[in-house]
């Protein structure tokens, strides 16, 4: 493998790695949003029962 | 009649297809450069990334201007996301440019090229945007100050872009001149395909990131409402 081939592979590889890292970050964020949405849904479901109990 | 935005998944699929087509054109259709040889292939990824970085910074500044003129809340997140994308693509421009410089000039970086130094200044200016933004409490004051800062940075974009033409930079190559692109038709077609793919990818990333940030804001408001 020539030096030029290594540099070209490195430049395109950096871009590919960046896209993969970005996708991983977005996947992590999506998992967090899913968890938080679930917690809020549980809170919202518990709320009418609590309000009813207080009233 | 309103025109609805194309679906994000369709755009993402199109970006992947365009990316594949551009890689095939770069390595199988575009001829090898007589002067630089194989290392010139870095041009097809480096220049579109740099142009996309300029575009993202420009969008960030445009949204900041809209924010300052209309006081619309939504423009703050849009401006922030545009600048965030621009900074990411700016970092990629510096990395791929350094690799190309090492392959062509034998050095990773040179301070004697105005184009390189001015791009670094633009990149660092927008890196400081995040320090400024996160040093202020969220609210209208932060939105206004961030907007003004984002707008100031846009003046650096044409200076950086035209630096090689204004300063007779002999190190950094000038491919696009008044006579048109200095390359063969096949090379230009490969460049255009790569530019379209990367710009579309950036747009998909912009909308995805913006959707995530808006969901974060909505969840925070919902949590506060439920806690009452």
Briefly say what this structure is.
Helices cover 95% and strands 0% of the residues of chain A. Chain A has 55 residues and is mainly α. Chain B starts with 7 loop residues before the first helix and ends with a helix.
Layout of strands and helices, then pairs:
The complex is a heterodimer of chains A (55) and B (228).
Chain A: H1 3-54
Chain B: H1 8-29, H2 43-70, H3 74-105, H4 114-133, H5 140-153, H6 156-161, H7 163-166, E1 176-177, E2 180-181, H8 185-227
Antiparallel strand pairs in B: 1-2
Notes on the protein architecture:
The complex is a heterodimer of chains A (55) and B (228). With 55 residues, chain A is mainly α. Chain A is 95% helix and 0% strand. The longest helix of chain A is centred in the middle third of the chain and has 52 residues, at 3-54. In chain B, strands 1-2 form a two-stranded antiparallel ribbon. In chain B, a hairpin with a 2-residue loop joins strand 1 (176-177) and strand 2. The longest helix of chain B has 43 residues, at 185-227. Chain B is globular and about 70 Å long. The N and C termini of chain B lie far apart (41 Å). The chains are: A mainly alpha (55), B mainly alpha (228). Chain A binds chain B through residues 2-5, 7-8, 10-12, 14-15, 18-19, 22, 26, 29-30, 33, 36-37, 40, 43-44, 47, and chain B through 37-39, 41-42, 45-46, 49, 88, 92, 95-96, 99-100, 102-103, 201, 205, 208-209, 212, 215-216, 219, 222-223, 226.
